[in-house]
Design brief:
Layout lengths: L9 H10 L7 H12 L4 H11 L3 H10 L11 E6 L2 H5 L2 H12 L12 E6 L11 E3 L2 E3 L4 H9 L3
Helix pairs in contact: 1-2, 1-3, 2-3, 3-4, 6-7
Bound molecules: FE2/S2 (inorganic) cluster.
Length: 157
């Protein structure tokens, strides 16, 4: 099982769970709060929430896997998102993603071992005219090409 990097936040998590004890209907709200607090939802956190709210672990797991918003892996210091909405897709975002996966040695949805970068695919970011678009910690970069995307990464070393 993956180690939880949530040590010092555990007490706060306990308080959140206590405020919703035996209230299975609050599951999504509690998951949101827990992810806001810790940054992600490792198994240990899911188990604590399941026990506290009185729901099964499989129910917690299915909610976490259903909503793209929830993640079970820690995000990197720099969160790179590649838009694969239709406009960006046809303008070449798959090639950009492939190039960054190669550069970072990870697949979309993962983080580098040093915790510096995480890579994810997102749907339309609302800047289709500037596609393909990538973002790094919410800062947007448009008209990307594979090598240009690697150059952007180098600004975040
Ligand atoms: S499809 Fe990428 S910004 Fe709209």
């Amino acid at each position: 099982m993956e180690a939880c990097k949530c040590g010092e936040k555990w007490q706060e998590l306990d308080k959140i769970i206590a405020a919703h004890r035996n209230r299975p209907q609050d599951l999504i709200e509690v998951l949101h709060k827990a992810q806001e607090l810790i940054g992600y939802l490792p198994k240990k956190v899911q188990v604590a929430i399941a026990e506290g709210l009185g729901v099964s672990l499989s129910e917690v797991y299915s909610v976490v896997s259903f909503y793209a918003h929830f993640t079970t892996k820690p995000k990197g210091k720099y969160q790179i998102s590649i838009c694969k909405g239709t406009a960006c897709y046809v303008k070449g975002s798959p090639q950009i993603l492939e190039r960054l996966e190669k550069e970072l040695g990870i697949k979309a949805g993962d983080s580098t071992d040093d915790g510096r970068y995480s890579l994810e695919v997102v749907r339309c970011l609302g800047a289709c005219g500037l596609g393909p678009v990538m973002t790094v910690n919410k800062r947007a970069y448009g008209l990307m090409k594979p090598e240009k995307a690697v150059a952007v990464l180098q600004q975040y070393q």
